[in-house]
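Hi,

I'm pasting everything inline rather than attaching a file, because the server keeps stripping attachments. The sequence lines come first, and each chain or strand is labelled.
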Amino acid sequence: MNPKLVYLTMIGSLLLGGCFGSQRAQMYSMKDGSASTLVVDNPGASAGAISGKLASGGSCHGSFSTLDPANAEKLASPEMMFTDNATASVAMLSCESGKVLRCTLARRTGESFSYGECRDQGGTEYSMVF
Amino acid sequence: MASVVTKAAPNTAWFFEMSPVEKKGTTMFKPLRNSLGFLALVAFASGCASAREGYLYDTKAPRRGSVVFHDAQLTEGSVVAQLANGERCTGKFNTIPDQVEVDDETRQIYREDSQVGLVILKCGAQHIVRCGFQRDHAGAGYGRCSDTAGSHFSLYF
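And the predicted assembly:
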């Protein structure tokens, strides 16, 4: 096969797959230290899709949206800080394992995410730095 | 080529210790070598490779560990730490702006006077330390940390 064609096909696949427009982070359980993965599609947008894969193997899917930093702070642990000069987001993910994750995320306005944390219905916290 | 050694100083914004080391080489590469050496010096002097050292204080016992923020002038970077019990950790930090200066016309942020951020340190296989922190434009900061073992630390840098 023509090498140029292979190269163009690979680039096209990456673009169609949204690889250039997503942001990924390792999400650590603050209960047992296990590492899960969180992927935000189109991280520069004010709202969008978010997905993850738990350390146990189950997939999670959900969405994120923007909210007032003061409200985000009420939902988060003391270590998670938000400011009026940055953007706060909240996300909900439903996982195959039955877990539901509620996340708060911080980022520079108009840029990709900086850090965040999630909490499941059992109270376990998960932290991430992008 | 001149080599540069950076060294983080405790509670000092950005401290550099530069020691040029002469090595034998061909005359043909001498101008290039000098240029690269100069560029390296400029890069290091402008803070491209700065680090900042600090401490992780145990809140339940009179002991402390150490922490070094690599690329401390950047908005994100890597961190290494050694806890008071000798456990070594590696991780990364990222920040968002806190107090800022805004251009009156464009309403764009042109200077961040302070930032808040989060550090996650991976220590043992199942030991994670996370710290929320605030730092000023010179890099000095304070934070509070918790870990998977339920311990709490205070972070000063």
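Chain B touches chain A at residues 75-76, 91-100, 109, 116-120, 122, 124-128, 130-132, 134, 143-148 (CB under 8 Å).

If the labels don't parse on your end, tell me and I'll reformat.
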